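Incident log, structure service

09:12 report received: a user says their structure output differs between two submissions of the same chain.
09:20 pulled the input from the user's history:
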Amino acid sequence: MYPFIRYASTIAHAALQVKKGNTLTFKETSEITFRCRLTDIDNFLEMNNGRVLTLYDMGRTDFAVRSGLGTQLLRQRWGLVVAGSTIQYRKRIRAFEKVTMKTKIVGFDERWIYIEQSMWVKGKPCSSALLRTGVTKGGKVIETARVLAALDQSDWQLPPSGYVAEWIVSDADRPWPPQS
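09:34 re-ran on a clean worker, output below:
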């Protein structure tokens, strides 16, 4: 089940951070901390890989609220979409461990915003995800320039490079499952 209460708590905490003046620009990294709960673990008593992806939603939510994107989403009646992702797991996260999650934008093009997220325990990286995300209006992805303009960051450019650019190219070559 989706952790709606945890999600709402993340929004409330991020809004409180904004009220305290602890905001972010799109150029900064969001960090949140939480504990691995019993509802997050699998039969091996470690965080379930599906839950990792769900919890990454919380990091993107904190980033959106604290960067002002959340306000624009409400004001403009925009939505968010994840159009692709890749993840690597390196270290297990056990029940009750304190986790630090980092979220940052690592590139964008005309249509997509590329976000890197990672989870850390005791200063060691446990997982890292790269996501292709977009802002939507009426179910269609809108131009990144429009999003940046709404946030008064029109002059910012961060073209995908390195592994992000390589992932974009390689993902475009990936065949879509055939119709049966």
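09:41 both user submissions now match this output. Likely a transient worker issue. Closing.
09:42 reviewer note: The chain has a mean pLDDT of 95. Residues 12 and 63 are 13 Å apart (CA to CA).
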